[in-house]
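Task: sequence design from structure.
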């Protein structure tokens, strides 16, 4: 089951009609029907698709209870990465070796990258979610948190239904509407669905070659650069200027080397632009991230999920276990919400007060650390919270 919303955060073209939300669920479904017909979907198709859809409170509860994002990187990565997953990942790589060879030739996506996503999304296809997909999508479109994301996915699912590639009564998946072994949203499937096993149809739920080829096509479309690295663990010298860390700062690998940064595995890519990230501050693990790392955020916008998936891919390629170091104590969920509230009061854009250390909160923390004379590594501690 995919725990990390959302699979793609697609860049969706705006609708000609403003995306509505709320109101009675029945009226909302009628509005979807009318808009679908206006977009060219046959009336009988729209009616048949929507007929059995029910509002699903469990979907809304799952959407609002993503506590897994509040775990720091070391805890989160240890939870997801195990010796068994490493073993099975390598085994699946061997089992589908011809498929991965084809993917690497056609799309330039490393097999380890796809294996990591496959492992995290559905544990190599063993559990793909049991929420009714059509009801989940309409429930989330009706909810007013992210209607601009989910409403177009409803119409994409209708299009798949019209092609006889989606059964609104029987198709199940993650609570956020993703389907199949690598958990793709309906619009992802329309744009990237690929017949990887040559049987003349695309089945992301039962065919690993179809799912892997489709995911590879999607990553390629996001801008993945063949033959380039995505992340590398590094060591950082004493006395480093921590204001240089974070995705906001980019230097070439050679420039980072000149700052004293060195790779723990292999070599730094000297000519590529890179950013230094320290997910738990200056006393925890450190990584250089290259342009391909940013592609991960088109798959999922959770910083911790993206970093863990990227790191796991390097482990599948033989990288050693990261040096966890001795990070300073972080904040609890409630403390993080207090921090976000105080940062907002100081005029910082931190997004939703959700207890999650996202990009906006990290940037604000760095600014406040600099103001207070604290090494600006963007890792909030109880001491910083007290000073604010």
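Answer:
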């Amino acid at each position: 089951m995919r725990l990390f919303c959302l699979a793609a955060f697609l860049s969706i073209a705006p609708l000609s009609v403003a995306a509505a939300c709320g109101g009675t669920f029945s009226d909302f479904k009628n509005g979807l029907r009318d808009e679908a017909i206006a977009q060219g979907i046959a009336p009988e198709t729209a009616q048949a698709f929507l007929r059995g859809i029910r509002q699903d409170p469990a979907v809304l509860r799952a959407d609002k209870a993503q506590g897994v994002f509040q775990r720091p990187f070391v805890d989160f990565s240890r939870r997801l990465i195990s010796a068994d997953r490493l073993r099975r990942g390598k085994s699946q790589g061997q089992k589908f070796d011809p498929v991965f060879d084809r993917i690497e030739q056609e799309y330039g996506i490393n097999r380890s990258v796809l294996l990591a996503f496959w492992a995290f999304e559905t544990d190599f296809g063993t559990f793909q979610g049991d929420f009714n997909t059509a009801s989940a999508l309409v429930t989330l479109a009706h909810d007013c948190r992210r209607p601009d994301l989910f409403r177009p996915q409803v119409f994409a699912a209708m299009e798949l239904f019209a092609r006889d590639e989606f059964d609104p009564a029987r198709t199940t998946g993650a609570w956020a509407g993703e389907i199949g072994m690598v958990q793709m949203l309906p619009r992802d499937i329309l744009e990237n669905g690929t017949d990887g096993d040559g049987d003349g149809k695309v089945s992301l739920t039962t065919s690993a070659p179809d799912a892997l080829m489709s995911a590879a096509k999607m990553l390629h479309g996001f801008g993945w650069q063949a033959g380039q690295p995505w992340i590398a663990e590094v060591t950082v010298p004493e006395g480093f200027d921590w204001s240089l860390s974070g995705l906001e700062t980019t230097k070439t690998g050679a420039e980072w080397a000149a700052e004293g940064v060195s790779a723990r595995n292999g070599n730094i890519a000297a000519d590529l632009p890179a950013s230094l990230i320290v997910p738990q501050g200056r006393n925890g693990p450190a990584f250089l991230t290259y342009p391909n790392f940013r592609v991960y955020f088109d798959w999922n916008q959770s910083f911790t999920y993206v970093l863990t998936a990227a790191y796991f891919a390097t482990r599948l390629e033989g990288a050693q276990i990261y040096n966890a170091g001795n990070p300073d104590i972080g904040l609890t969920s409630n403390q993080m919400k207090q921090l976000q509230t105080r940062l907002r009061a100081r005029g910082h854009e931190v997004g939703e007060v959700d207890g999650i250390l996202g990009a906006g909160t990290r940037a604000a923390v760095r600014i406040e650390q600099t103001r207070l004379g604290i090494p600006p590594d963007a890792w909030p501690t109880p001491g910083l919270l007290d000073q604010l």
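The chain is about 45% helix and 5% strand.
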